[in-house]
Amino acid sequence: RWKRSVYQLLWKHMIVYGIVFISLSILYKHLLNETGRKNFRVIAEHCTGYSRSINLMIMLGFFTSTAMQRLFTMQTTIPGTGSNDHRTICAVAALVVDFMFQISLSATKKTISGSVCVGKCRCYCLLTEEERNVLEDPHKTDPTTPRPLVVIDWMLLLLKETFLQNRFFMDFNYLKNVDILMAYKKSCGNTIKFANQNISPALVQAVILAVYCFGCVTVMARTFAKEEEAPTSHALIAYVPLMPAMQFFIYFSWLCFGKAAVDPFGDDEDDINVKDLVKSHIENAKRLKDLYNRQLSDVFPALPQREYNDSAQL
Amino acid sequence: RWKRSVYQLLWKHMIVYGIVFISLSILYKHLLNETGRKNFRVIAEHCTGYSRSINLMIMLGFFTSTAMQRLFTMQTTIPGTGSNDHRTICAVAALVVDFMFQISLSATKKTISGSVCVGKCRCYCLLTEEERNVLEDPHKTDPTTPRPLVVIDWMLLLLKETFLQNRFFMDFNYLKNVDILMAYKKSCGNTIKFANQNISPALVQAVILAVYCFGCVTVMARTFAKEEEAPTSHALIAYVPLMPAMQFFIYFSWLCFGKAAVDPFGDDEDDINVKDLVKSHIENAKRLKDLYNRQLSDVFPALPQREYNDSAQL
Amino acid sequence: RWKRSVYQLLWKHMIVYGIVFISLSILYKHLLNETGRKNFRVIAEHCTGYSRSINLMIMLGFFTSTAMQRLFTMQTTIPGTGSNDHRTICAVAALVVDFMFQISLSATKKTISGSVCVGKCRCYCLLTEEERNVLEDPHKTDPTTPRPLVVIDWMLLLLKETFLQNRFFMDFNYLKNVDILMAYKKSCGNTIKFANQNISPALVQAVILAVYCFGCVTVMARTFAKEEEAPTSHALIAYVPLMPAMQFFIYFSWLCFGKAAVDPFGDDEDDINVKDLVKSHIENAKRLKDLYNRQLSDVFPALPQREYNDSAQL
Amino acid sequence: RWKRSVYQLLWKHMIVYGIVFISLSILYKHLLNETGRKNFRVIAEHCTGYSRSINLMIMLGFFTSTAMQRLFTMQTTIPGTGSNDHRTICAVAALVVDFMFQISLSATKKTISGSVCVGKCRCYCLLTEEERNVLEDPHKTDPTTPRPLVVIDWMLLLLKETFLQNRFFMDFNYLKNVDILMAYKKSCGNTIKFANQNISPALVQAVILAVYCFGCVTVMARTFAKEEEAPTSHALIAYVPLMPAMQFFIYFSWLCFGKAAVDPFGDDEDDINVKDLVKSHIENAKRLKDLYNRQLSDVFPALPQREYNDSAQL
Amino acid sequence: RWKRSVYQLLWKHMIVYGIVFISLSILYKHLLNETGRKNFRVIAEHCTGYSRSINLMIMLGFFTSTAMQRLFTMQTTIPGTGSNDHRTICAVAALVVDFMFQISLSATKKTISGSVCVGKCRCYCLLTEEERNVLEDPHKTDPTTPRPLVVIDWMLLLLKETFLQNRFFMDFNYLKNVDILMAYKKSCGNTIKFANQNISPALVQAVILAVYCFGCVTVMARTFAKEEEAPTSHALIAYVPLMPAMQFFIYFSWLCFGKAAVDPFGDDEDDINVKDLVKSHIENAKRLKDLYNRQLSDVFPALPQREYNDSAQL
Q1: Which chain A residues touch B61 with a CB distance below 8 Å?
Q2: How many structural domains compose chain A?
Q3: Are residues C234 and C95 in the same domain?
Q4: What confidence score (pLDDT) does residue E35 get?
Q5: C209 close contact with B: CB closer than 8 A
Q6: What gap in Å lies between CA E133 and CA E128, rounded to an integer?
Q7: What is the residue-level pLDDT of chain B in tens, covering all 314 positions?
Q8: Are residues A85 and A143 in the same domain?
């Protein structure tokens, strides 16, 4: 229950906030002389005035909901291998899937940092020795061309050759396969676009800055009651900053969700797990390769149609 | 009228809110001594100040409307069997539909808890003995593969065999059927994505926490009139918390709708009824199986075209 | 100009609001004794405080804009017959259209109440005697199957038979027609979904309740000036409730538009007129039936191509 | 720079606002006696209180952004001829385009008033004498049928005849052309829907009314300083209504953009220019007619392929 | 880190804001006499009142989020060459791509000013001498026709001729190519529409004006404490305008992102780099031209299939 909870996300900030608030209260009550307390009061009231007039929540609301909508759109368009490979009925299937990891990875390379090396190794294992040589040999492959495009080119050549050798059930299949390959490329391209042309970092910076400023303002802001006859309550208010912490908590948590939605390839629990995605692609590839060589009768040996078919073939 | 009404949703919270509010009023008026009442007043005024400055409603508004938009999108993309099966003109139809319950169920398994066992049993009844064996036998089916994908594989094999045996009206039908199957798979996948990669639970937690905090603040917040000459009104205000309850009511109801939109597979009246969905799939499957073997003349024996056709065939 | 104007929508509420407000003013000024006036003042000030802190407008804004976006989406996806029938080049066209009224009607049956009987009658007139018998005979049609699905089944059978009798210009036409029929069914299904899985009635209830509460609060809320030397102005403010009425007017009108967007099949001027929709479907069906039997030369007897064609045919 | 600027849009209202504000200031300072000034003060303070509590901006924000989103959606779906005609490879092209003006015009007829006559004339010029007769003759064309549908019918007949006479390069072209024609019809229909089932006029009315009321309130609202020792500043505030005008300016300009987005076929500079649209359609039609009869070698006489082709043909 | 940061965007405005604020503080404290200070105080308090009642943030929020949503939509629909050219299997490919730069450029010509000349030159280099002559010769090309449409016409003629000469693998390829070309044209057209029918400049003007006005109001607005016993704090508040600057910072930065989203073809770091886009198009064209003439065996000389194919061909 601790994982993926909002407490895990915010406890550090909340503790720092509480400590600073209580320190300021102690400073005011016990350490400052009369002049210092007057100065403190003036600044605190100045802060109080502003803590209520800043329309930060509206800005945060629009920011986070815009970021979330982009994320949801992206989630539904992220390429899966499933819709792609079942139809590549010729033996291309396994190879195609292998190279696709390349694309997926290079799409996320810029946003993930730690897991790149691992991922890269695993992908290179999927390549044969020869393929790797071609990819890395500057004489055979123009080094300025993006790697995934090279792989797409190989696949196009493969499909063309398969077509020229008449390996498709129907001629129409060739066009279908090229269509699917192009759709996959576009889908990968959109994921790359999402990662690269994302919400401007300056906007994220501005929102973060504003929220931290707001935190500083609320930590300072306090009202000073005229009547000094209720010391218990006043001590409670001064040393248990429930209300201002709650205010800050709302802003800060909302900011966290916005930031998480802006960068979905990170290491948080809610983020898209790139390694798992790659793993499931590998497993899909193996499954599809198997499927290509199987018959329905391998799975269900005693199908009623079978007899009929056998007799029809005779 | 009680069912699906907002009163049913909120009455428990409203009663608790009222009791706490009135208890605090009694505490203040009759139980506390002079010092206690002063302390009470200070805290109440502190709460009043914050109850107006917390921009909770904006956060709630964006949260609930974002959750609702996701839900509406999901509702229109949830797979129905209709668009799928009418065209599976060969005998595959009924079998295909049977297995689809599997997919639908596993898609929602994580969110529904109570109805899983029931649903699973019913689905297994749809499977033949042999199919169940294959699914559960670790030698025949890789246990790490998701069950629905196994069924999709079977269907792909079936379609391939049907094509190879030349059972389609037209060759083009084979591609159409594979397309429809893949579209159905993608549609199921999107429903699973919706259930798994939903709005972060931490966000839901944060919003709930904020609303409950707000409730505590408003239940404490009260203003103390200087003039003590209108005891009736003051008693009314103190013991009939209409206004603060209404404030809390707005926030809390809005939160409820947001929560309901986040988790549409629950047991509420407005939620998607998974059991009914499965039932209607079963009925559709039966209807389509019947349809495959029927002729227009079975329904309308005396169609005018009939004679013409008969004469043309002679 | 009176029709479809906001005045027509709101005048009743505005008059009631004005009468209550003025009655309360008279009560305060002329009927209450000193103690009563004090009590009145306390309650009025209590209300004033809350009338400004309730974030009702934000809730209303999100509610109405969410409802409107759903409505706009629905409007663009509501099925028209046009895109459907032009291509059903065989004689199926007219029959198909006839039955479609069934679907449209049953889709909206739950939301329209008064016009159902009329509509049903008109639709049944479109059915032949035999069709009606089949639909209503429990032996021929399973009574639990939804009626529109029965009609869709008939159409599928018709298309299959037409295909088997080789009545299409091209084989490909058969698939096209099935596609169009399925798309039409899905489109009807979405309209039904919109009507059934609409915004939760509890949410509508909550919003309505909140707005009426707000109205009660503002009708009571008033400020009492200290200086009693400007009787004319004070009378004006007390007896001409322009400002609070305007406040309530904004909230209430916004609520009205939200409610109208939630239920677009009602009797308002802006609502979708189901009867007119059915009428235009009937006319379209007739027009298309005529079109099927016409030649371009029937409309333009003296086309230049004609001669060329005639000579080519010789 | 004056054109399409916000100043052009708002200067009239701003001047009226300024004059009224200054007149009221003069009235208060120089024309009223002591009783009048007291009354004025009471009303002004009453207005000030309400000018801050009316949540008009939220209503306006949702209204304008909803209207703009609808407009943007419409802009991307408004039919262009380009994607349509290039493929009508037979001689139908020019005729088809001609009639399309009809549709476009009738789609916008209800919203444009002044330019209808001009547009209609120009369109009728595009029709031949015979076509116009058929359209206007009640014996040949049912007068209740919408004119554009008649033209669509003609085109369908034309395509059918072209197909029956085997004028298409490929049979498949016929279906493509019908598809494109239907898509064009649907696209026109959506534009008509946008114009007819637009945001309810009552909603626009309500928003306009609210903004004007708000203007009246702010023009009256003013605060009266206690200290009378700063006559210059007070005069400045009374006679140079910068602040309230700015407040009103924000509301009013936002209203203007909302209104403009609701009705995009008007005479504003930002509106869709229907006349230019029709003109560009005419030019496109001419260009496409020319293109149909041209060869690549007409444009580039010395293409290298040419020789090869000539030799291949020999 | 300085690039693309929010500080780079805002530092100029922030410095000007600070200087003006401090100057006004000095003016008040040291330069004005008693009357002047009274006047200053009155105006400052007037500004303070308005600085809190202007609902600017809501306007800004809707403005920026609307602009961003449009931008995101545009980013995903901007035409890439990839999905287009792979399939133009005949030699048309390179030529097609060349001309497409024309379209891309003319689409953005109106928004980019400095880089037009450069881009135009580079594009003209891609054209052969003859092509340029045809484009610029008023006798051969109607000067009123948009240049990109001329190029599209050439491509259509090319495709038609290729089809007539039977150069496609399959007949169906011709239709596919025309489809892709039309989709590309539509996609370019949408980008042009985005640039031309963008958010109204008057709206941008209004928002900018409102933010600058708000800046002026906040720079003037200040509260004057009654107690003069805390000179340090008061000096701090008067000379270190952290709070009002932060307020202005939020508004101004939000405005900047809105403006950037309205005009995405500018010179900012986040904007779409038109020159890079053109460069990548050129490189793609070269790569595809190479690909057309290559075989899979050129890349992988020792493929296992090869032997099988060779033996099959024998």
Answers
A1: 61
A2: 2
A3: no
A4: 83
A5: yes
A6: 9
A7: 566 677 877 888 888 999 998 888 888 888 888 888 888 888 888 888 777 666 777 777 888 888 777 777 776 666 543 433 333 333 333 344 444 444 444 433 333 333 333 334 344 445 556 666 666 666 666 666 666 666 667 777 777 777 777 766 666 667 777 777 777 667 666 666 666 666 777 788 888 888 888 888 888 887 776 656 677 777 777 788 888 888 888 888 888 888 877 766 655 656 666 556 656 666 666 676 666 667 767 766 666 555 565 666 55
A8: yes
Same domain, E108 and E188: yes
Give the model's pLDDT for residue D135: 62
C193/B65 touch (CB, cutoff 8 Å), yes or no: no
Q: What pLDDT is stored for residue C87 in this prediction?
A: 35
Over residues D155-171, the mean pLDDT reads 70
What is the nearest CA distance from C44 to chain B, expressed in angstroms? 10
List, as ranges, residues 82-121 from D with C-beta within 8 Å of C.
91
Q: Which residue in C has a C-alpha nearest to residue B55's C-alpha?
A: C55
Looking at the predicted complex, does its ipTM rise above 0.95?
no
Query: Helices C242-262 & C6-26, crossing angle to 10 degrees?
Result: 140
Neighbouring chains to B with at least 3 Cβ pairs closer than 8 Å: A, C
**Lowest-confidence segment of A267-271, E5-9, E112-116 by average pLDDT:** E112-116
Enclosing H/E stretch for D64: helix D56-77
Q: Mark which of A244, A262, A280 sits at the end of a domain.
A: A262
- Other Cβ atoms less than 10 A from the Cβ of E269: the count is 14
H or E, element range at C301:
none
Q: Residue C280 and residue A308: Cα distance in Å, rounded?
A: 52
For residue C69 the two structure tokens come to 């976006």
Q: Does residue A301 belong to any structural domain of this protein?
A: yes
Distance CA D23, CA D39 (A): 16
Query: Cα separation of C90 and C293, whole Å?
Result: 10
User: Is residue B232 domain-resident?
Assistant: yes
- Interface check for C206 against chain B (CB to CB < 8 A): the answer is yes
Q: How far apart are CA D262 and CA A104, in angstroms?
A: 43
Instruction: Determine the residue among E48, E76, E277, E289 to mutate to test chain A binding: the one whose Cβ has the most chain A Cβ atoms within 10 Å.
Output: E76
CA B90 – CA B289 distance, rounded (Å):
10
What is the extent of the structural domain holding A212?
Answer: 6-74+199-262
D16 touches chain E (CB under 8 A): no
Q: Is the distance from CB of E199 to CB of E73 less than 8 angstroms? A: no
In this prediction, residue A110 carries a pLDDT of 36
Measured distance CA(E47)–CA(D233) in Å, rounded:
12
B68–C201 C-beta distance less than 8 A: no
Q: Do both B65 and B85 map to the same domain?
A: no
Same domain assignment for residues B124 and B145 = yes
Residue D84 lies in a domain: no
Q: Are residues E250 and E189 in the same domain?
A: no
For the stretch E290-304, pLDDT in tens is: 766 677 677 666 665
Q: Which residue has the higher pLDDT, C200 or D142?
A: C200
Nearest CA to B297 among B307, B288, B289, B306? B306
Residue B200's closest CA among A71, E37, E84, D238?
A: A71
Q: Kindly state whether residues A189 and A219 are assigned to the same domain.
A: no
Chain B residues within 8 A of A243 when measuring between CB atoms? 46-47, 50, 217
Residues C127 and C159 occupy one common structural domain: yes
Report yes or no on C68 lying in a domain: yes
Q: How far apart are CA D29 and CA E309, in angstroms?
A: 102
